[in-house]
Design a protein that fits this description.
It contains 25 helices and no strands. It is mainly alpha-helical. The chain starts with 48 loop residues before the first helix and ends in an 11-residue tail after the last helix.
Length: 553
């Protein structure tokens, strides 16, 4: 794909943290989804690329962009002729969600919502059913938002998920003001799903809520899907995401264990365990599970995603050369995996190959216009004094976040991170406090809110959130650096020195903008600024290695 044009003012010296690219459960090996006919007019099982995409959707596994496009064309044509087929609508809505995530195209989400709303009503006679989504690619995208279901039904004794009951979704602002601020507008629930609502519709709504970063709703829909159908394997990835980003890591571990215990009846759970172990700080176990996912992959898109996960883990360990190799292998398997391109850009910059880093980031953002990658790219320019290029990328952060918000995506986390470091920390505090209040209490939000409080001059309150972010298990150089700076501002010299040193030992390249500041701060405290390489990875530090994926982390 052609690189995006940049108005760079490069000088003679040229040049997120990225979340685990795969996402919780994104590496699952595809299972089979049998499209059971609604009455006599159910959609026939597809073949070829449509079948590959359908299998991937049923398992929560990655699918290629080409396969997803084929499945969307197939289901659009079918529901155009048979608008009463609820299961076909559910498959179509889920495919829209997956394509929107894969391409960072939030305009796909309102179309997904309309299709899933139609599926939620259950099958209808074709004569009385009207299509909710036009088969025309020129159809208006709309501006819907994720439904918050009316609350979880009481689980039955035989099929309830072994996890805490989902809380009632916190109320969130609605209307144009809320959308402009990045919070998803909440549409009114239309009552309980019909008795014959296909479970795929509930799974699709969980995936849509997860894509819009509405984790309380994702949790509720995912739990409802599993009560409706305990073998709805594709409900697990968004549900585990929701648990983790809600701050409930124990529930995430139990969900992964339940999936693994299903044995050969369910897709392998290696991907879930990789994410859960990473969040618990057990990096060796996370890498072992990601390696298992590579071996288990049954399609190039799945193999590419698993290899990209290994690249992310290598990057977090401070091994840019290893990360670069894994990202390159991922792109050989799945050339349209733009998360791996962003990872390559990050690793190339750390290795001093800045011209290549520029080109790689351009390619990544052209294929996956994610505001988090634009922020990362801007900070790379900022670290080199290329303020014009940095400003271009920061403007792109705001524009992409606004685009997502219009489609119901909650972009407050990335906007809060941007504002904290680039001129509006008070606004970041307001934005991130609202996130925390509405139930987004994962370590990402804790770190971002703590840092925003520190940047706005409230180091005392900041320390509480920074401690939460760094004591849940994940070994993040960025989070540890933030804590060290907060402690330094509070006069806690010994603690600050320890955490700054730990950040640089964990990953001395963690940020082109902040890693040099970490070295400066450590030197000012009398620490060694020669810290480099990787923190010791003893078994005691990472926790005992778990050999069987069915074991609960």
């Amino acid at each position: 794909m052609d690189a995006m044009k940049q108005d760079r003012t490069r000088q003679s010296r040229q040049i997120k943290r990225a979340a685990l690219a795969v996402g919780a459960g994104g590496l699952l090996v595809a299972g089979a989804l049998v499209c059971v006919p609604d009455g006599k007019r159910g959609a026939p099982p597809p073949s070829g690329p449509e079948a590959r995409a359908l299998d991937a959707l049923s398992a929560g596994a990655p699918a290629s962009g080409a396969d997803l496009a084929a499945l969307i064309r197939d289901r659009e044509a079918w529901v155009g002729r048979h608008p009463g087929d609820a299961r076909a609508w559910a498959v179509l809505g889920s495919a829209y969600v997956r394509r929107g995530v894969r391409q960072a195209d939030p305009a796909a989400f309102p179309r997904a919502e309309r299709a899933l709303d139609r599926a939620l009503a259950g099958p209808l006679p074709d004569a009385s059913a009207a299509p909710a989504v036009s088969a025309s690619p020129r159809a208006s995208a709309g501006t819907g938002a994720t439904a918050a279901p009316e609350g979880p039904a009481s689980p039955g004794a035989s099929d309830s998920l072994a996890s805490p009951a989902a809380p009632r979704t916190p109320p969130v602002p609605t209307g144009s003001t809320a959308v402009a601020a990045g919070a998803p507008g909440a549409r009114a629930a239309t009552g309980a799903p019909a008795a014959d609502t296909p479970p795929e519709a509930l799974v699709g709504l969980a995936a849509l809520a997860d894509a819009r970063q509405d984790y309380p709703a994702a949790r509720t829909w995912g739990e409802r899907a599993l009560r409706r159908s305990p073998t709805a394997w594709a409900a697990y990835p968004p549900l585990i995401d929701a648990y983790s980003l809600h701050g409930d890591h124990e529930a995430a571990g139990r969900a992964a264990a339940r999936l693994a215990k299903a044995g050969p009846k369910a897709p392998p759970a290696a991907a879930e365990y990789a994410v859960v172990y990473r969040d618990r700080g057990r990096r060796e176990d996370a890498a072992a599970q990601a390696s298992a996912a590579v071996e288990q992959a049954s399609a190039p898109a799945q193999k590419g995603a698993a290899l990209a996960a290994l690249g992310d883990l290598a990057w977090e360990r401070g091994e840019p050369e290893e990360a670069l190799g894994q990202y390159g292998a991922a792109l050989q398997a799945a050339p349209d995996l733009y998360t791996a391109q962003a990872g390559r850009g990050r690793a190339l910059a750390a290795l001093g190959r800045t011209d290549e880093a520029y080109q790689t980031y351009d390619t990544a953002l052209a294929g996956l216009p994610d505001p988090a990658y634009a922020l990362e790219y801007g900070e790379l320019f900022d670290s080199l004094g290329l303020t014009g290029d940095a400003s271009t990328q920061y403007a792109k952060v705001r524009a992409l976040a606004a685009r997502g918000a219009r489609a119901g995506v909650d972009e407050n986390l990335v906007l809060g991170r941007y504002e904290a470091d680039h001129g509006a920390p008070a606004s970041a505090v307001t934005r991130l406090t609202a996130e925390w209040t509405r139930g987004h209490r994962g370590i990402e939000t804790a770190d971002a809110l703590g840092w925003a409080l520190y940047r706005s001059g409230d180091a005392s309150r900041a320390l509480t959130y920074a401690t939460t972010a760094t004591e849940q298990g994940r070994r993040s150089a960025l989070y540890t650096y933030h804590r060290g700076e907060i402690e330094r501002a509070l006069g806690m010299a010994a603690e600050a020195r320890r955490h700054l040193d730990e950040a640089l030992r964990t990953n001395p390249y963690f940020s082109p903008l902040l890693a040099p500041r970490a070295r400066e701060a450590l030197g000012a405290l009398g620490g060694s600024t020669a810290t480099g390489g990787v923190a010791g990875t003893t078994e005691e530090a990472d926790g005992p290695t778990v050999r069987a994926p069915a074991a609960q982390p």
